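ping. complex inputs:
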Amino acid sequence: MDNSICQVYEDEIQSLEEEIKLLAEKYEDGQQESIFFSDEEILMSIKTFQKEFQGPSKRHESPSDLKAELESVEKDLSFLMKFTGIQFTSHSKKTLEKTRNRTMQKHRLKGNCHSLSFQLEFQLLETQNKECVSAVITDLSIIMDSGEDSDMRKFVSSIEEHGNLLTFFRSLSSYAEWYEHRRCTFLHFK
Amino acid sequence: GVFTHLEMLEARAHEAAVQQEEKEQEEEKLAGLKARVEELRLRRDELQAKVDLQQKGQLGKEGVVSDAAQPSARAVLEWKIKSVKAMLQVFYLTGNVSRFACVLPTAAFWGLLDVQRTGMPGWSGGWGHCTLRAASPTLMDSLPSFAFQKLSLSLQEHFSDQIEGTLQRNSLCNLLVFNYNVSSKSETFPFKVRLLYGDLSCSLPTEVVISCTPDAPASLAETAAAHSDLFRRVALHKAFRSFGRAEESGD
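pong. complex structure:
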């Protein structure tokens, strides 16, 4: 019957819609990463935007709204970096799969915690069910600059096996702090 | 004889007409679906081409704006906000945020995090609430006071005409006490509210006590009850916003 042809079309429509969502996200991510504006350019844009904008606000976000939002998120970021001692110097993500309930992304992170540098790569699978989203980390690989240390290597392998980023950063944070203390102490005695 | 025959012919004709109509409807539906498929295929191919081009690195800054060769100031700012937010998200992803229930009426970005079995925070949608999770003892200690500082500054900034004086908090940072003004019949009366956030995993207070001055009119007791209920149900900044709106509409 024609019902089967209908079904075929409907299935294709659904798969095309998901493909389009995935491609749109890939494009967005790519756009975001392919461009870069320096701090001066950002400052100049703020000034230009405020000048350009005259009269009653036609759009939702006026220049002062955007500027306020930028300041707010930058303050939050600098707070987090200050308190965790962690600074992420580069981050790239690739969307591998995107359906209605599942998103699979590959992340690459570089950064340092106090004086210790690290590089991470992992896959993140986000599944949506009812009201909550669950996130699972797989394929975690970590490279530490101070990787020659055998204890560090053991620690890193165990983290890679369990995919527990929280433990990694928590331990790295306190290890890095003590590392710093030790370094300062030794310097003091020189 | 003749009439029965005529009736039969009529019935057949009617049935044929109905069948014809159904057939046409089906064909229309199929045509519609086919058109949609083609439309989507076209869009998919366009996007694919854009992504391929991007991969080859040919779409530079031009890709940001629709027509002009120079990205607009707004586009630049939006790019910057997006990249800072992405970095913040990395902090969440990697579990580097503290688990403390508080209301941060700042960027709607914070959303509501739900800690899953893997110990990784995930998104649960929602706006203006924040449940954070500790990565280190220092962070856990500092975040409540930071969060409260931020909360009080935010509240005072946005609702300065309603909130009197400074917000008080206790050392555990789970108790918030402040005064705010309520107007009734062109007179204003101070309400003193005491919010206890007894459950750290919930961003709403577990206990709300509102008291008014003894000379306040009896009608205000109803208002106090309504406000008390509101504080229990919605985030603090939302509650204040709705008070503001109620006053504007001349409640």
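Residues 144-247 of chain B form one domain.
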